[in-house]
Amino acid sequence: MEDDRIHLLIVDDSAPFRQGLRAMLRTAPDIAVIGEATTGAEAIDMADTLQPDVILMDLQMPDGNGLLATRRILHTSPHIRIVVLSMFEDDDSVFAALQAGARGYVLKGALKGELLRAIRGANNGEAIFGPAIAQRLVHYFAQRVPVTLSSLPRDAFPELTEREREILGLLAQRLTNQEIADRLVLSTKTVRNHVSNIFTKLQ
């Protein structure tokens, strides 16, 4: 019988933390923890051997950080989705992880629902960020994108659709997802999906 559960690899050097994650995920019938790694080197080897669907990756481990492991894993297995699960929420850590190819960034201590959404969303190809990280992305765009995109040539963001350009402009004006949804007559879920696509394309 084919196992259609999400196969998950946990990478963290703290045994109590890994045990806590296992206990939390045990109640999710669609997720199967297939392995645990305690270092970046172990993560690279286990990812190659086990070929998980999703990896929860810590950034700081004894042999360095999870950034190098993320890059190496995605170099050989680009289909694996990596979600960083870290206690660090500074801009440097967040954007370094995303630039390394992580599909999401969730803070340790996140609620169960948030973590499950990140795992499932990453498995579905979405870019997933916890609320605090999502706010940092908005600030990131606001600092780097003009308040209005109407004067920009179309080739400024060739990767984006017209709708995505429109939403990026509203993000730059510091509108919330709900405010954008109200203005464009869209659901907040649709706006979240567009924001995920925007960051993925501009990564």
Automatic annotation (TrEMBL):
Protein's name according to its UniProt entry: Regulatory protein, LuxR:Response regulator receiver
GO terms of molecular function: DNA binding
Any Gene Ontology biological process: phosphorelay signal transduction system
Domain Response regulatory span(s) in chain numbering: 7-123
Domain of life per record: Bacteria
Keyword Nucleotide-binding: no
PANTHER family xrefs: TWO-COMPONENT RESPONSE REGULATOR
Organism listed in the record: uncultured Chloroflexia bacterium
Keywords from the named record: DNA-binding, Phosphoprotein
Modified residues (4-aspartylphosphate): D58
HTH luxR-type domain mapped to chain residues: 153-203
InterPro entries: CheY-like_superfamily, NreC/VraR/RcsB-like_REC, Sig_transdc_resp-reg_C-effctor, Sig_transdc_resp-reg_receiver, Tscrpt_reg_LuxR_C, WalR-like
PROSITE patterns tied to this protein: HTH_LUXR_2, RESPONSE_REGULATORY
